[in-house]
Amino acid sequence: MNPAATPNSPHSADGAHARHVMTDEERAEYERLRRHAAVRHRRARRAGSVVLLLSALLLAPLAVVAAWVHDTVSDTDRYVATVAPLASAPPVQDVVINRITDRVVENVDVQAVTDSLVKTLRDAGAPPRVIAGAESLEGPLRNAVRTAVDRTVTSVITSDTFQQVWEGANRRSHAAVVNMLTGDREGAVEAVNGTVQLDVGAVVDQVQQRLVDAGFEKAAAIPDTDRTVTLFETEQLGKAQDAMRLLDVIGTWLPVLTVVLAALAVWAAPAHRVMLMITATGVGVMMVGLLVVLALVRRVYLDSVPPAALPADAAATIYDTFVRFLRDSTLTLLVVSVITALLAYLYGPGRVARGVRAAADRGTTATGRALESAGMRTGAVGRRLAGHQRWITGGVMAAAALALVFWNHPTVGAVALVVGVALAVLIVSAILASAAGPDGPEADPAEQLTVS
Questions:
Q1: What angle do CA 263, 268, 270 make, to 5 degrees?
Q2: Helices and strands of the chain, counted as H and E runs
Q3: What 3-state class would DSSP assign to 156?
Q4: What pTM does this model have?
Q5: Residues 6 or more apart whose Cβ sits within 8 Å of residue 89
Q6: pLDDT digits (tens, 9 = 90+) for 148-179
């Protein structure tokens, strides 16, 4: 403190005269400038949130598709889970059965069999009626062969063995392609300097061992070199591997970027609740658009497949099976968007929202009072719940959101389960809070949770 600055010093007098008292006109101008700056600030925040929102909405369908393609292309387990139902789909089974049966019947020369029979009968001096009957056996014999082959092929295709063979073949082929595209040297198919090579080392080892066991001891001297077979060379292999790396990045980070942009749009907006409702509604609209696009692509695909190449029902089954995870993800996001928009609205000042909240409060309060009247008081626990209802609601909603985020490929059923559990927890918490009983001298200080 400066000792010279005393009430009697000239410095204090100068300081007192230096203070300026704002006039009414100056204060009005100051408030006007403050309101103007606040309006400009709100406009800037609103414009920034709109840009972020539009970016998130445009990226939302691309993020869903990119994540689906990434999982289908790079994840062998996911790919096998995608195509596995095709082995048990009746339209696909019918196509496989018919084509295998046709191929087998084509390799059976029924006409040669009937011609041989006719020649044998003619050489044996059989009557003309018998020979004519033998000549007419070609059609029935061909039908009998087809029936027998069809029965055998059907029994194999409709069995569990075909399902296992189908999944095993798809798993091996997909893993080989992924290893080739990613440059992984662990698989039998490898990509080396623009060439695709097949490693036959395991086969060579088995052949070598069998030759040695058969007495060809010199087979043990087979060299370990030259155990790869070049399948083909291509200049496009490097581009395919680069595309695979790009897909790996996009499929992983594009969904994250979309969520971050949406969250920033809500945070930057002056009215967070309203922007959350708008964002959720916008994402829902984009998911509906994606479902419409999938339906249009399905129609175009079915029109482009010739019936001679693939029946319409089989083509529809293949398309629906292949994109079902994409459709499920889109429906899940649509349901989450609708629920989010509804919750954001119910937390608002609207007449319907206030009516819903009041009805819920009356219901839980009446239930709690009924429990209290029956002697089932929650005591201090209920009073603590009543005092922290906002924190409890926020915590339950945050836990529900995290459960969906960390759920591996959540479905509409998973969303319904999480929402149902969250609502049950909130309802039970509100009921227990309403059954706390009186808070005064007549309440037991040591009371916790009593149930009579």
A1: 125
A2: 17, 3
A3: helix
A4: 0.71
A5: 314, 317, 321
A6: 777 877 887 788 877 887 888 777 767 766 66
